Amino acid sequence: MIMTAEFPDDARVTLAHGAGGRQTAALIARVFARHFQNPDFTADDAAILPVGNFATGRTAFTTDGFIVSPWQFPGGNIGKLSICGTVNDLACMGAVPRYLSCAFQIEEGFPLRDLDAIAAAMAETAKAAGVRIVAGDTKVAGRGQVDGVFITTTGLGELLPDAEPSGSRAEAGDAIIVTGDVGRHGAAILVARRDFAIDAAITSDCAPLAATVRALFAAVPDKSAIHTIRDATRGGVGTVLHEIAAESHVGIELDAPAIPVAPEVRGVCGLLGLEPLYLACEGRLVLFAPQAIAPKLVETLRALPDSRQAAIIGHVTPDFSGRVVLRTEIGTKTLLPEPSGELLPRIC
Amino acid sequence: MIMTAEFPDDARVTLAHGAGGRQTAALIARVFARHFQNPDFTADDAAILPVGNFATGRTAFTTDGFIVSPWQFPGGNIGKLSICGTVNDLACMGAVPRYLSCAFQIEEGFPLRDLDAIAAAMAETAKAAGVRIVAGDTKVAGRGQVDGVFITTTGLGELLPDAEPSGSRAEAGDAIIVTGDVGRHGAAILVARRDFAIDAAITSDCAPLAATVRALFAAVPDKSAIHTIRDATRGGVGTVLHEIAAESHVGIELDAPAIPVAPEVRGVCGLLGLEPLYLACEGRLVLFAPQAIAPKLVETLRALPDSRQAAIIGHVTPDFSGRVVLRTEIGTKTLLPEPSGELLPRIC
């Protein structure tokens, strides 16, 4: 449950909140420290972490900046998103997310109640992902210098022994699995933005997937058999597949009818002429693993709350290296065009 | 020497550069990977670091967001600043900075040549500080959604054995040392902004101080004798002193004539009615250590390039706990007012 604070409607972030003096300390105490409290949290310049205790001694380190307009959308807000994005990046490296830092850049005049809701969502999502927010920074920018609030999160994760998923390890014969229906986050943001006067009830898939990845590795005797894990965020599943095809020097053949797409997402894409494969997800993974273990992985995924619609959507072939081919419902094959900025709707 | 790239005048950052597709990869390769190259640098989702090898097994973790307008100023630019800020935060914890991540939020239309100059300054400063930039993220915001470029850096540092500087360890009898003249960065930004039509040649003190801190710890047989180190950034030396007085439950007495202030900084402060103690520094430390070792620390500092004007500026007293008193040139004592947002000129 998200805690709600007692900020009046008209309480706003001021430049003084970002000046490093008394008001900054009060903002940190009243909003961030209250929500993020844990034994490693610091209001000091840096947190001191027992990272040397990590079993493998190897640490994954990743950073991600979040800009999203509107700051809240069906299924989440920028706070939840900023935790999911970094947690999922760590998980995709085969790491257990342990610690996060977060840096806020807030526009003068941003409602304190909204900032509080963002911090509450961050705390709730971090708890669900088993990660601690330990350090942070708050800057306030003048009106018009930043649009609402930007958040940058940076994560430290403990690498699972023997796990070594990588975008360059996809192999001919691998099955390609997606953990749920695609394009949900991008479609939810497009609709929430109301640029297109489309009324559709689309909920973002935004979710932390650390537990999902741990369950996958626990399900296979040989952890190195999970060749590749990627979260399909910016640019969607299509962009991720192109990246993996290029990095692994393999071809990818997708079975179009097998790709799960929610009817409401398909509807919005049809209206706007968009390909769901290029819409961002924020709670979907793309996995590459040998076909022999793929059914076991799908079974594991379908038993978990955020991946009930997991499906095998294609396979890796030694042919047409670096390319992604879509086999359509009527059996014809078409090349999935390589993503370029112009093709992608801007959602962040 | 900063490398200059061959970007034409009119080459600009576009939304496509931030969409996660081919243009994003090109921007990373052409600007960031080129400048930041080192064995641990990743263009992947996360860097894998041998943090478990740190001698003490304890790691310092800190994050800081940088917004500065204008993005370049005499003595540096936002890129240099973003490295110095995080490196210095780590150094102040008694840690040797090892790894940095950086996240960019760039306004559509920002000149590529300027972005390149920022990345070059980051690479040069990181090299000078002995730290590796290993992971990053690039987002592009629409015109007007962000003012120029924001950078968030996050750092990992290896704690020096036995070093335990802290804002709560200042003790009655400690000498207070500042490593150079105060208020330079804040004054440089105020002048560079041209809001006040003041023409003064003021160079920011922006500098990485990791080597300075290492030299200080090497100069004393008992590292724990250095009680407190803080970099006097946002809010300046005055804010830092108030924080330490409060955290350590002690009083601070400053010797006003001993505080080094450059004549040009004093001039600008006089014109604008500002107190140099409340202007930001970006290359100055405030140290607390017993008076017996203070001369040795000052001698060590004066032999180093970024702290030639180091000076003892006051001492800690058991009286007036939590307060900062200024002893003036004519021997009278005045209370240095507690910083509050309204008093501080906004420089970020």
TrEMBL record, chains A, B:
Coiled coil: none annotated. One of its GO terms (biological process) is protein maturation. Residues 171-325 form the PurM-like C-terminal domain. It comes from the Bacteria. Residues 44-158 form the PurM-like N-terminal domain. InterPro entries: HypE, PurM-like_C_dom, PurM-like_C_sf, PurM-like_N, PurM-like_N_sf. PANTHER family: CARBAMOYL DEHYDRATASE HYPE, HYDROGENASE ISOENZYMES FORMATION PROTEIN HYPE. Belongs to the HypE family. This is Hydrogenase expression/formation protein HypE. The lineage of its organism: Bacteria, Bacillati, Bacillota, Negativicutes, Selenomonadales.
